[in-house]
Amino acid sequence: MMATSYNAKEEDGHHSGASSHGAAGVVKSKKPDNTAFKQQRLPAWQPILTAGTVLPAFFVIGLIFIPIGIGLYVSSNNIKEFEIDYTGVDISNPCYSCAKNFSWNSTTPCVCSMNFTLEQPFESNVFMYYGLSNFYQNHRRYVKSRDDSQLNGDQSALKNPSKECEPYRTSDGLPIAPCGAIANSLFNDTLELYHIDSNNTRNTIPLVKKGIAWWTDKHVKFRNPGENLTAAFQGTNKPVNWRKPVYELDPSDPDNNGFINEDFIVWMRTAALPTFRKLYRIIQKKSNTTPTLPSGKYVLEITYNYPVLSFDGRKRMILSTISWMGGKNPFLGIAYITVGSICFFLGVVLLIIHHKYDTRSNSADIPN
Fold first, then answer.
1. Which residues of the chain form beta strands (DSSP E)?
2. Which of 137, 118, 130, 122 lies closest to 85, judged by CA?
3. Which residue from 75, 93, 237, 116 is spatially nearest to 168, judged by alpha carbons?
4. For residue range 20-52, what is the model confidence (pLDDT) as tens digits?
């Protein structure tokens, strides 16, 4: 019988004998290198999950998350909020005639008033928002339709806007400033608030228009192309749907005019959802003895400039206070309570299963 010998090198592709084709015919080995990484010998932590480690983790998460969630939920519910819809869809709405007859081409503004009553006073600073529904600011082409260099005061971008602004890049042969669909659709309703006292007299509620935009937007992202705005914007045209150029947004205050106008800056920060609200004005508290907005009758006077019925949109005015966590939003509290409750419930279930079905002997003796 002929004996055969096992050659590991030959199995790997390394032949001990000379090949008829010489060195070029040697087959290379596919075996990985003998290293810790390629041979998977690196040190690793492989935890063994036992009831003693898993159950306390579930209970700790539950006991931490549930109180935090309750605190967040209670804090959110303590925020006072009042909302009024002034779209004018219903014929009984005072703004019905404005909504029905107004369009972007209208030259005469339409004014309507809505009466409402605050049952409870608003004690601290009150934030006035305008809200829009069914308005998709998150559409890809809409979000891209802007020129950040132009908004930052770049002279070359002012006269030669980005092609992303099409079809709102030029108008009548002149570059549009600010260009793009976002700027062209700027919200331009004017809201004024009045309090009706016991003598049935209208008292104007002072609305602060500065301090509503992010500091970084106001001082970093948005800049005017020069000090003299009329001269700086010479040779440009206003957006198609605007009634006046950008350097006349707030002629009374040079620090709130042009690209650094705070209403404009707030609008240019696009919303993520089709139903959103944006800060419009701030009603500041004057003294500690009187509420910012006492309970009673109020009148909201609207200069109706923004048509929304063409896309089945809705418009709202919202009055709200804030807390340490911001505006009214119960979702975060509900999320914490839900996660904590699930973890606590799973901990109880696993504890019962562990005690009922754990039949392992505590003795170290090997059973027969």
1. 81-85, 110-118, 126-133, 170-171, 174-175, 190-196, 202-204, 276-283, 296-304, 314-320
2. 130
3. 237
4. 444 555 677 888 899 989 988 899 888 888 888
CA 270 vs. chain centroid, Å, equals 8
Look-up of token digits 């301090």: 211
Look-up of token digits 């600011």: 137
Separation of CA 179 from chain center: 23
Only one residue has tokens 């042969």, namely 173
Crossing angle (nearest 10°) for helices 51-77 and 331-357: 160
Task: Return d(Cα 82, Cα 128) in angstroms, integer.
Answer: 10
Distances (CA, A) of 2 to 15, 16, 124: 20, 19, 102
Report the chain's terminal Cα–Cα distance, integer Å: 49
* pTM exceeds cut of 0.85: no
For the segment 172-227, what is each residue's pLDDT rounded down to a tens digit? 999 999 999 999 999 999 999 999 998 889 999 999 999 999 999 999 999 999 88
